[in-house]
Amino acid sequence: MLVTLEGLDGSGKTTVQEALRDRHPDAVFTREPTRSWYGEAVRRSIAADDADPIAELFLYTADHAAHLASTIRPALAADALVLCDRYTDSRYAYQGASLDGVVKRPMEYVRGVHQPWTRPPDATLYLDVDPRVGVERASATNKFERAGFLAQVGENYEQLIEYEPERFVRIDAERSPEDVIGAAEDALERLLDGEDCSVR
Fold it and tell me: CATH: 3.30.70.20, 3.40.50.300, 3.40.50.1100, 3.30.200.20. Which one for 2-192?
């Protein structure tokens, strides 16, 4: 099973993933951007305010393709539980916002680039946080952590949830870290037991 962790910057995904690592030590834990040279190119682009958004999209796409080949598909073929901090939904939501005004229907454009070859998640834990809270927590260290931009990203996430409500589990990430971790642990256990805990 491939379970992804999604949400705005400052929603607490990394903290949740670390807690899940303690609960599921045999699972494969990974993230995007990766720690490969592809991922390093992505991080350099994130740090550059003048990076071209189309070029940036395809840096992310290359990193994702390599990640699928080197980590995701082999782990799933071995019947491992895979938990990924950010995955395709981040690309759709964030690059969809970055490409606003550059291409028509930007989020659909990004989804169209990926859908012929990516491996969709089986379930997604969406850590829901107000953009203003996310900015405050993230301390706005890069161009993607600004309130106006994050508000647009949040709208894109809501559209993705509307497209596939059966895949997403919404978790209120404005609660205490302990409560958020507990909700994520509970949701993952129910998913592994085959229960439906999706957004409806």
Answer: 3.40.50.300
Q: How far apart are CA 70 and CA 66, in angstroms?
A: 6
Q: Are 42 and 33 in contact (CB under 8 A)?
A: yes
pTM for the whole thing? 0.93
- Report the 10 Å Cβ neighbour count for 37: 10
Write out the chain's pLDDT in tens, 200 residues.
Answer: 999 999 998 899 989 999 999 999 999 999 999 999 999 999 999 888 889 999 999 999 999 999 999 999 999 999 999 999 999 999 999 999 999 999 999 999 999 999 999 999 999 999 999 888 877 777 656 556 577 888 999 999 999 999 999 999 999 999 999 999 999 999 999 999 988 776 65
**CB-based contacts of 77, cutoff 8 Å, min separation 6:** none
What count of other Cβ atoms lies within 10 Å of the Cβ of residue 62? 15
